Amino acid sequence: MINYLNIDNPLNYLSGHLTRLVKGRLWLKVLIGMFLGIAVGMLIGPTTGWFGTKTATTIGNWLAFPGQLFLTLIQMIVIPLIFASVVRGLTASESFEQLRKMGMGVVIYFIVTTTIAIIIGLVSQP
Fold it and tell me: CA 35, CA 27: separation in Å to the nearest integer?
C-alpha cells in the first residue's frame, strides 16, 4: 500500500504513474474494449434473432449500465483534470514572460471553446 502523505514530490509520482499507463498501452486496451462492446451489442441486438426483443433489451440495459457509469465518472473527472493540467503547466514555467504568454493563450482558448460550446448548446435545443 502506498502512503501518499510521505511522497516527496506527488507530481513526480503522478508523472511516473501516467508513464507506466502509457507504456502499458492503456489506449490500446480501451480501443479493444470499445470494439468488443460494439461487436457484442450488435450480436445480442434484437435484429439478429438470437434473443427475443424483450430479452435482448433487458440484456442490453444490464450491459449498458457499467458503460453509463463509466461515462458519468469521466464527466466528473474531466473538468478538474483539465484545470489541474493547466495550473501544472502554468506553474512549470520559469519566466514571468512565458507565464504571461501561456496564460493569455489559455484564457483565449477557454473563451473560444466555451463560446463554441454555448452556440452548439443553443442551436441544438429543440
Answer: 13
> What are the distances in angstroms from CA 41 to CA 48, 49, 52?
10, 13, 14
Sign, CA dihedral 122-123-124-126, equals positive
- Measured from the Cβ of residue 84, the count of other Cβ atoms closer than 10 Å reads 12
pLDDT digits (tens, 9 = 90+) for 24-44: 787 888 899 889 988 988 888
Confidence of residue 1 (pLDDT cuts 50, 70, 90): very low
End-to-end CA distance of the chain: 51
93: left (phi over 0), alpha (psi -120 to 50) or beta: beta
- 125 CB neighbour count, 10 Å cutoff: 5
User: In this predicted model, what pLDDT tens digit does every residue of 72-98 receive, in sequence order?
Assistant: 888 888 878 888 887 777 777 777 787
Q: What is the dihedral of CA 44, 47, 49, 54, to 10 degrees?
A: 70
Instruction: Check: CB of residue 86 under 8 Å from CB of residue 107.
Output: no
Domain ranges of the chain: 4-76
